[in-house]
Amino acid sequence: MINEKDYGKNGGIAEFYNGAREFSVMRNLYDCAVKQLKLKLEILNNEFNVRYSRNPIHHIESRLKSADSIIAKLLKKNLPVSIESAMKNVNDIAGVRVVCSYIDDVYAVAEMLLRQTDVKLNKRQDYIAAPNYNGYRSLHLDVSVPVFFSDTTQFVSAEVQIRTIAMDFWASLEHDVRYKADKSRLPAGINEEMLACADEIARIDVKMQDMYKRIQQAERNG
């Protein structure tokens, strides 16, 4: 939540909350972008199933940042607090998480999505090839997609996170430990244990993919 002392900082928090219509317009815009991306991914998943009799995508999740989260991010970056500033500087107001079965599927889904001519890649961060300091693994794509309205077309930014079931399992539990728990009361060594778990889960991820490939090869050899 935003503290009272933050009101007036950067001169716009009260105005941000009070601009109900402007915020609703912005939220609808990003909600439409999420729907566009989810539809694209569902179509790709269905096509893959028709061609190869399997789905690379296990499931898709989505979310829109709350007003509090948007404001907190702007304050952290010491940027003006306004709808315009949020749309310009916060790249993950709209978020889509794609959970795949195997590591190869992560990159295949990313390639299929980015091959579409109306999807513009703004930034790519590969935390699978180079895991984050805490062991977090995922492929992040900051993209822009067109949203078609009755009288205009707007390109809207969104963050697409693509990861395996194993990566999602670790990230979900790590979020509970680091962000929901009282950090001052965390037992000593928890951070190191979480990192060790991330590495162990990553090894299992690779092993499961290797097993799947061997099974496929055995089936092809009859």
CATH structural class: Alpha Beta
The total tally of domains equals: 1
Main β sheet profile: 5 strands, mixed
Would you identify the regions where 5 or more consecutive residues have pLDDT less than 50?
A: none
- What is the CATH H-level superfamily? Beta Polymerase, domain 2
What is the H/E order? HHEHHEHEEEHH
Strand content: 15-25%
Structure commentary:
The chain has 222 residues and is α+β, with helices and mostly antiparallel strands. It has one domain (4-165): 2-Layer Sandwich (Beta Polymerase, domain 2), CATH 3.30.460.10. It has 7 helices and 5 strands, in the order ααβααβαβββαα. The protein has helices at 13-18, 20-52, 67-76, 83-89, 103-114, 165-180, 190-220; strands at residues 57-64, 94-100, 120-126, 139-148, 153-164. The chain has a 5-stranded mixed beta sheet with strand order 1-2-5-4-3. β4 (139-148) and β5 form a beta hairpin. α6 runs antiparallel to α7. The chain is flat and about 65 Å long. It starts with 12 loop residues before the first helix and ends with a helix.
